[in-house]
Amino acid sequence: MDLRNRKNEFAPRPDLKIWLDGELVPAGEAKISVFDHGLLYGDGVFEGIRSYNGKIFRCEQHVRRLYDSARAIRLVIPMTPDEITKAMYDTLAGNGLAGKDAYIRLVVTRGVGTLGLSILKTACPSVFVIADQIELYPPALYETGMAVITVPTMRSHPAALSPRIKSLNYLNNILAKIEGQDANAPEAIMLNHLGFVAECTGDNIFVIRDGKLQTPPTSAGILEGVTRDAVIELARKRGMTVEEKDLVRHDLYVVQECFLTGTAAEVIAVTSIDGRPIGDGKPGPITKQLMSDFHALIRAE
Ligand code: PMP
User: Fold this and answer.
1) Is 166 assigned a catalytic role?
2) Which ranges in the chain belong to alpha helices (H)?
3) CA–CA separation, 193 vs 56, rounded Å?
4) Cβ distance 257 to 284 under 8 Å?
5) Which ligand 1 atom lies nearest to the CA of residue 227?
6) Alpha-carbon distance 209 to 77, whole Å?
7) Residues 175/220, Cβ–Cβ less than 8 Å
8) Superfamily grouping for domain 139-300
9) What's the gap in Å between 213 CA and the centre of ligand 1?
10) What CATH number labels 11-132?
11) Closest by Cα among 156, 67, 72, 56 to 108
12) Which residue from 60, 44, 284 is spatially nearest to 165, judged by alpha carbons?
């Protein structure tokens, strides 16, 4: 088989321009070495970010989380936060996305090194930015809500690899995603090592119980989502009580409403969990209110 010339329907558009270590290059030329520890070991950090009308949503929070993730894995980002921000705006402009809605992937890899694990034998972290369109879930799911399941793969133990680090090693999430997909679930809920609900493979989870908004605390082993933060703010603005609280599967089954939050997903209702309908099996009123508040927020900020 001619491995190098296979047709790949998922390959990036060739006209896409990638910001790679200081310059915008065509997608086909945006290459990282096979010796980069980001590839060899998943050693690196990243952010998934959105721009709305050309403005990067909660840019400072994403950049801050990137630097926090990098600090946690002893990776020194070879740019300042302002330079990173400019690189993202340059990438949007270079792809005709200024003033538009787009999805941005910001990545910092450990860089080229020897074949060992040692970070001391790597010298130059690479930074790249991809800006493109994204559609995570089919639009119809935002109307109907989605059926999700809890999966056997547990979220990584915070003392092994903290979910607070948004690292390039996403295999824990991918294994859970596979289990979800095998059951036709577009997203999967992961529990932590104690059996408490943690988060989904790429989204945080919220429930509404007796009018209160509840979501697992950071200590449950979650990524502290930027969208999660925004939704907590919006709910408090509406005068709702928000509790960060450990939840078990049973708690999920008996709530009135449930929804997920994430940069790519935004806010999406969950209408069934492990085959149990949530509420009356339709997106609930509080979920719909917060979805609409979130849509207003992303256009207003
Ligand atoms: N949890 C995980 C594991 C994620 O990958 C994401 C998406 N980045 C989230 C939660 C949601 O975080 P955010 O709202 O910052 O996108």
Assistant:
1) yes
2) 37-41, 59-72, 81-94, 139-144, 171-182, 226-237, 249-253, 285-300
3) 35
4) yes
5) 14
6) 42
7) no
8) D-amino Acid Aminotransferase, subunit A, domain 2 (3.20.10.10)
9) 19
10) 3.30.470.10
11) 67
12) 44
In the chain, CATH 3.30.470.10 sits at: 11-132
pTM of the model: 0.97
The distance from CA 261 to its chain's CA centroid, rounded to whole angstroms, is: 9
The residue assigned the tokens 């090693």 is 169
- Given 55, 166, 237, 282, the catalytic residue: 166
**Atom nearest to 229 CA in ligand 1:** 14
Instruction: Classify residue 39 by burial, with Cβ atoms within 10 Å: 0-12, 13-18, 19+.
Output: middle
Note whether 208 and 255 are within 8 A (CB): yes
Q: Determine whether the shortest distance from the Cβ of 91 to ligand 1 is under 6 A.
A: no
Rounded CA separation 277/279 (Å)? 6
* Residues of each domain in the chain carrying CATH 3.20.10.10: 139-300
Output the DSSP codes for 204-240. Answer: EEEEEETTEEEE--GGGT----HHHHHHHHHHHHTT-
* Tens of pLDDT, residue by residue, the chain (301 residues): 899 999 999 888 889 999 999 999 999 999 999 999 999 999 999 999 999 999 999 999 999 999 999 999 999 999 999 999 999 999 999 999 999 999 999 999 999 999 999 999 999 999 999 999 887 899 999 999 999 999 999 999 999 999 999 999 999 999 999 999 999 999 999 999 999 999 999 999 999 999 999 999 999 999 999 999 999 999 999 999 999 999 999 999 999 999 999 999 999 999 999 999 999 999 999 999 999 999 999 999 8
